[in-house]
Amino acid sequence: MKPRFTSNSTPRVLAIIPNVGLLAGGNRVTLSGQGFAAPGLNVEFGGRPADCQTQNDWVLRCLVPGGEPGTVSVRVENTGMNVLLPDAYTYINLTASAALPNSGALAGGTFVRLYGDGFGGEMDVRLGEAPAVDLEILDSGRLTLRTPPGSEGPVSLTLIRDGAVVTLPDLFTYFEPYDNQDWTSGGGIDGAINVTVIDDVGRLEGAFVMLGIDPTTRYQGFTNPKGQITFSGPDVIGPFTVTAGKALYSAWSWVQVNAQNLTLKLSKPIDYPSTPPTCGDHPAIIRGTVSRIKDAYNYGNDLVKVTTTYGSTPMPDPGANAELINQGSYELRSRLGDMVVMAQAGFEGENGFVTHALGFYPFLSPIAGSERTCTLDGDCEDGEICYEFGEKTECNVSGTCCVSDETCNVEAGETCTQVVPDRACVKLYDGIDIVIDTPLSQEMEVILDDPPLSADPTLYGTLPDSTGAFIWYDFNSMGVYYIADVSAYGVPSVTAKMPKALPGGLFGSPFHIQTGAYVGWGQPESEVFLTGLVDTTQPVHAYPMLGTVQPLSPAQNGTLVTPLDFVFSVNKEPLPSAYIHRLYRQASSGSVLAWTIYTAGMVTSYSLPTFPEVAADARLLPGSYTWQMLGYYAPQAVYNKLNLRTLGNWRSRSVSSAAFTIPE
Question: For a pLDDT cut of 90, what percent of the chain falls above it?
Answer without folding.
Answer: 78
